[in-house]
Amino acid sequence: MTPDPLLAQLVRTARFTRGVPGRFTVTADGRTVLYLRGRTGDDPAPCLWALDLGTGSERLLADPVRLLDDGRGTRGIGGYATDAAGGLVAFTLAGALWTAGADGGEPRRLPAARPVSDPRPDPGGRRIAYVRRGALRIIRADGTDDRPIAEPAAGDVEFGVAEHTDATLTDGPRGHWWAPDGTALLCARTDRRRVHRWYGTDPADPDRPPRIRHHAPAGTPNPDVTLWLIPARDNAPHTPVRWDRAAYEYVVGAGWDGHGPFALVQSRDQRTVLLLGIDPVDGRTTVLHEQRDARWVELVPGLPARTASGVLLAHADAHGTRHLTADGEPVTPVGRQLRAVLGVDGDEVLFTASDEPTETGLWAWRPGTRPRRLGEGPGLFGGVLRGGVLVRTVADTTGAAPRAEVLRGGRTVATVPSHAERPVPAVRRSMLRLGPRELRAALHLPSWHRPTDHGPLPVLLDPYGGAARQRVTVAHTWQTLVSQWFAEQGFAVLVTDGQGTPGRGPGWERAVYGDLFGPVLDDQVSALAVAARTHPVLDLNRVGIRGWSFSGSLAVLAVLRRPDVFRAAVAGAPVTDQRLYDAHWRERVLGRPDEYPERYDACSLLREAPRLTRPLLLMHGLADPKVPPAHTLRLSDALLTAGRPHEVLLLPGAGHQPVGGELTENLLQHQLRFLRGNLAAGVPDSVRTGQ
């Protein structure tokens, strides 16, 4: 079979992420921008680069392939951290700790205990804290005095790792934070001894022992996360941070700024969140801010935060709007939905917000002024701000990879080079607003289709539809390209963001409270019906749906509950029993299963399995750590017990999102064959032959 150009490109470019610069840092002197990027659009090994803003020249600071000549460097540098000035860079490579200077020079491998994870230089660049197998350690930047400062006394306990901080931290989950003077750290201790253990095996590799993983499903004990103040000197006592942990068991954020250490804690029902100021001497806490909601308090990346002058930044949901607030007062107007706070530079606040849900704008604000927009035109904007230097990124409607430019005083002074490949196909997409709720949707048609020549097309719904993720934006993502690929194979592909998706306000997000799937499925059916009235190219007698993870569950439910609409479904890694899913995510919407068992029963695919009357293809990676294959296996068992035919494709060694090599291409081709066979789709011979 001849390789498909787009699918081959998806694999080669790792979904068009290779060659794209990212993880930007502006040095304190405003002269240099640091970032990660591969050498080419198909380079799998991100390198560390520096852009000199004075000359506009780019310097290669660390090349993992050259640093490791044994082939292990091909995975590249996954992340890095700097001191306050940005002059010392610490990163891991093949489990070892490395440092580099922003001004150049040969990178150095430090003799730190391996394997190293999450290295963080202190603000002065004298020492580096890092995590190794549950212990928090520090080493001097010159490579001497490597020692632990917090070690677990039992297995299943880790220092320097926090369980749920990725919801509020813009640089990923963290578990340790330096004091501004570098004399101490605020450190999380995570104890998983009471958490359920799950055992995973790969039937394709019977010689391999079972994998043991801690997992807290809905209604079961969570990890016990505590916070400690730990001096950086030898043998100094650790001071516990004290708060009502029985009432607020989730630590969802923490940090240490110029005003002191702080923590963000959340109740188990997620209806209350407290910002706690921490006394750096005795660990006592004071409530600085409290948020409550009758359903759940949404966690916003980058919040809470404090400006240099002490203004407390948070958010408030009011008048159908998620507002940025400063000392409790709204900064953003009604209708502009706050997305994230990207950083605070002195008293300048950089944040993203949406006036239109398919777009994300970049804004700056300082006390005493109105927010000002830092970039015009439709797109998904982001950025990093420091010392008056802004690195602004944007993914727009052109179909090209996100671009980055550096501005000073509102004027572009440099462009960060990108080596990303441009996608092979042109996207034929119409952006739609459907029905009384103005559902945002995108309709993909084949580039070759002419209604007068080829007639109506079978329809493929290709949504995500769940919380925290949009599919319908003005930018062209890799998912957009996959939707277009299915269109080129003979489908009209409809992608709709319904209730529960972000960007349209608090009420829209929380419409799924108590019912995870009902409103979402209703919106998909409604969008299909409305789109067909204005686009007769859609053949409503041949409708299928595909999805993965949440949308995999949605695809299964679509053929179970609405076989009158959907004729076939493809579902990858579906969550079939909500009681088996992560407590923090699932209890947010459904509550605890012992309090609301009827909600979990109503969202169970297993209970509805006997209703299946349409073709269904189930796919699941046998090494999926997020949604274990037990979900699909139990659904298949329920279907067989009820005498309902279906297909199951198990993927040995594959995780939650199978990618890489021939697997990506063949998996999509397999879905295509299934959908074509059940929806009578295809490409006309005249198109195939170019007539």
**Principal-axis shape:** globular
Q: Helical region count?
A: 13
C-alpha Rg, in Å?
26 Å
Oligomer: single chain
Mean pLDDT: 94
Low-confidence spans: pLDDT under 50, at least 5 residues? Answer: none
Task: Report the strand count.
Answer: 43
Gap between N and C termini: 22 Å
Structural class: alpha+beta
The helix content, as a percent range, equals: 10-25%
Give the DSSP E fraction (strand runs of 2 or more residues).
Answer: 25-35%
Strand order of the largest sheet: 36-37-39-38-40-41-42-43
- Major sheet summary line: 8 strands, mixed
Would you give an account of this structure?
- The mean pLDDT is 94.
- With 691 residues, this protein is α+β, with helices and mostly antiparallel strands.
- A hairpin with a 7-residue loop joins β33 and β34 (403-408).
- The strands form ten sheets. The chain has an eight-stranded mixed β-sheet with strand order 36-37-39-38-40-41-42-43, with helices on both faces. Strands 13, 14, 15, 18 and 19 form a five-stranded antiparallel β-sheet that branches. The protein has a four-stranded antiparallel β-sheet with strand order 1-2-3-4.
- The protein is globular.
- α1 runs antiparallel to α12.
